[in-house]
Design goal:
The chain is of the alpha/beta class. The chain is built from seven helices and 14 strands. It starts with a strand and ends with a helix.
Length: 201
């Protein structure tokens, strides 16, 4: 798999193009992502959103119109695409596929898992393709996503951190902000973050 990345917009939100068997998956197209995506895809098959925050979904609408692609998003975050709950003026889009928690999909012959790790948002998920995790705003290099936003939930974040701590094997992690890392590296920080979230509640 080939992975291209470009930070987008004022929050430098990572937009990814993951190419598997000649098929391009556009992951979290944020503010201003359209021109970069159009220059870097040859055979786009889907738009995948890790969660519904505006800085990850801003360009959904325009890319769908230009490329005629289906939008996939975790079911519990689908409302954010249509309703602009943070009042940012996000172009309204609609999910073609509302993905269930921990659902495994076959998209054009490619296996794509949406691993649910709620807390940052209700539907916040890691998108697993082959040995890579596109972690959105769940896991970052040395950190985790915030749990103090509207629709965030510290209790759910703790559950998610405990859930990820039980995973076996290693994955390369491509987060929603900042540089890439690995699950093995981040595992050592999980107990610390569980305690931090507990203390804040």
């Amino acid at each position: 798999m080939q992975v291209k990345v470009q930070p987008m917009g004022p929050y430098q939100t990572n937009c990814y193009i993951a190419t598997v068997e000649g098929k391009d998956f556009i992951i979290d197209p944020g503010v201003g992502a359209v021109s970069w995506v159009l220059k870097n895809v040859k055979n786009p098959v889907a738009i995948l959103n890790t969660h519904g925050h505006f800085d990850h979904v801003w360009s959904n609408k325009e890319l769908k119109e230009k490329l005629d692609l289906p939008i996939y998003i975790p079911v519990n975050d689908a409302f954010m695409l249509e309703n602009d709950p943070f009042g940012q003026g996000t172009p309204s889009s609609r999910a073609d596929i509302k993905v269930k928690n921990d659902e495994v999909l076959d998209i054009d012959g490619v296996k794509v898992k949406f691993l649910h790790f709620g807390g940052h948002t209700p539907g916040c998920s890691v998108i697993e393709i082959e040995d890579c995790w596109f972690s959105g705003d769940f896991l970052f290099e040395g950190s985790i996503g915030r749990w103090d936003f509207p629709y965030s939930d510290g209790k759910e974040m703790i559950k998610s951190l405990k859930k990820v701590s039980d995973f076996k094997g290693n994955f390369k992690i491509y987060p929603g902000h900042g540089g890439s890392t690995s699950l093995a590296k981040e595992m050592k920080y999980i107990p610390y973050w569980i305690e931090q979230v507990k203390r804040s509640r």
